[in-house]
# Entry
Amino acid sequence: MKKNLLYIMIFTMLISLMACGKKNESSKGSAGAIELKLGHAMSEGTNATNLIHEFAVKVGEETEGRVKIEDFPNSQLGSETDMLEQIQLGSLDAGAIMTGSMQAIEPKMAIEDLPYMWKDIDHARNAFDGEFGDYLGKLMENYGLQKIGFIEWGYREITNNKRPIVKPEDLKGMKIRVAQNKLRVDAFEKLGALPTMLAFSELYGALQQGVVDSQENPLANIVAANFNEVQKYLSITDHFYNQAMVVVNKDTWEKINEDDRKIILDCMNELSEKIKDANDKDHNSYIETLRSKGMEINDNVDKEAFRKAMLPVYEEWSATFGDELMKIYNEASGW
# Structure
């Protein structure tokens, strides 16, 4: 009898311990979840926006809900400089911020916006995947930001309502919108244009009302933002090449355990490659879409003339970038 009673007591204790274990495991899975907000400026409907959302979902799945990411496209959380400040303060967790826009806090980051800085897209991609990208990421650590990867926005093209842009002189006197970025202003002034800094969210209205005549963006943004409704000419100038650096507030990053950080980095690497593939695949279809919607397409651009006209920007900004960064760039540029 006593033996049976002992067995019953042991069995009851085991059941209780198992129940407690499950309860603790359940609470760990929910209460321990880290929720991140990630903002960026790319338009809704673009490959980049769709794939960033896919990345956010996958991180949640791969971490089994321990890390949840909510993405906010189309500058919903403010301009890139606004989002950058929010991430530093910790009021926003993460963002995909165009690397050149980070000159708002670190002047050296403006190097990304040197015109015609890469011989071809392969040199550009290899640079961001290599020492050049690593150097820029290290710079951001000084400002409380952890780089987790890059996302290709791609080459930027010019649209306007006045004429096809074939040679630098065609931009003379033209009011062109640029991002909040001093180097871009300097570059377009070398062409005789009248650059105006505006947030992307204000751009469609500014074109519609004639506040500016022209703008420059990646093809994906031009299509998604329906700029064909307010612009007549598209010229394939390829004047700037951009990648966005994906950064996380450093304090927030350090709260994530090592295994989940690795999952996030792996998912980010996958995202970066998918976006490059999508950009390659859809380049011509974007152009044909805009043509079918009534835009006049000009791909007969004298890019060498543009590059020569804008070269003085390199000399003017080289002191800002410093010898070490310029050496890394020159070795990677392909020129």
